[in-house]
Design a protein that fits this description.
about 290 residues, alpha+beta, globular
Length: about 290
């Protein structure tokens, strides 16, 4: 963690840890399986906690548990404090995963300044889908994943290259209505799941873009996790976390140079002590000048 506040985000990290611990306790109470993902898993292994310059937390969850999460959350969680959000036919959070947001905080990102949605600090819950057992079915999964990512995000991608940005621009201009985009991405998501019923024993995160969906690993790594220290709390990680980290990061125990240590999010404004609702019309959903 950013103990000395060198990167100016210690208070964000402390709140992220609070959300993660609440999420862990909730999942254990309702028998929902998850493991730390991305830089959060890397932090658990290399730093025994959060990477000092990391301003987000990611977890993986198997699809069958992922689909149970929101109904269980809305019924049993402390929804006055924490909200569980996923794009649907009524709202779009411009993110392809589910978010657990702290309603008592503010964390406004550049791509959401015009959106009247929950703007609290969040952790990301990323679904893992079964990888199909034939090349043809896997190709269909990838094809549908690209369609899903485009129409679910409904925004221009960052750091994905000119070709991806141009393709997204063209696709979004072809279908401009909210309802049309929803129907397309929902059908694509369903097809990913359908193809995965012909399972290979591997899982993948199809919702995170072309590069990450190629990182496939055994389902049993999630079903039988190991536990590592994460800021003094035991957290589940993939059983084969060393192989996964090597696949994703290469020499994962080597820290990047100071120049490469950058915050992941493009933050417009944050306040860890007051609800985002205080800043509506100020930092997001600003009224147009007459």
């Amino acid at each position: 963690m950013d103990q000395d506040n060198k990167y100016g985000i210690r208070e964000i990290q402390e709140k992220l840890l609070e959300i993660l611990i609440y999420f862990k306790n909730f999942c254990e109470s309702h028998k929902l399986r998850f493991v730390l993902a991305g830089g959060t898993c890397l932090g658990a292994v290399r730093e025994q906690g959060m990477i000092p310059w990391d301003d987000d937390v990611d977890v993986f969850m198997l699809r069958e548990d992922y689909e149970k999460l929101i109904p269980l959350w809305n019924q049993y969680a402390d929804t006055k404090h924490y909200s569980c959000l996923r794009s649907n036919d009524e709202i779009n959070i411009h993110h392809s995963v589910t978010e657990i947001r702290d309603n008592h905080t503010t964390f406004i990102l550049k791509h959401n300044v015009g959106n009247d949605i929950n703007q609290g600090l969040m952790i990301d819950v990323i679904p893992l889908d079964d990888v199909a057992n034939s090349r043809a079915r896997r190709t269909m999964q990838v094809f549908n994943a690209l369609i899903f990512d485009c129409y679910n995000f409904q925004r221009m991608p960052e750091h994905k290259g000119k070709a991806v940005t141009l393709a997204t621009h063209i696709a979004l201009n072809m279908v401009k209505s909210f309802e049309g985009r929803y129907r397309i991405w929902k059908k694509a998501e369903k097809q990913i799941i359908v193809e995965g019923r012909h399972a290979s024993g591997l899982v993948a995160s199809f919702m995170e873009g072309p590069k990450i969906m190629r990182d496939r690993f055994p389902r049993k790594w999630v079903e039988s996790p190991v536990y590592l220290d994460f800021e003094g709390v035991k957290m589940p990680v993939l059983r084969g976390y060393k192989k996964w980290l090597t696949m994703s990061y290469g020499n994962y125990m080597k820290r990047p140079s100071e120049r490469e240590r950058q915050l992941r999010h493009n933050i417009v404004f944050y306040d860890m002590n007051h609800s985002y609702q205080k800043y509506k019309g100020i930092y997001y959903c600003k009224k147009a000048r007459k």
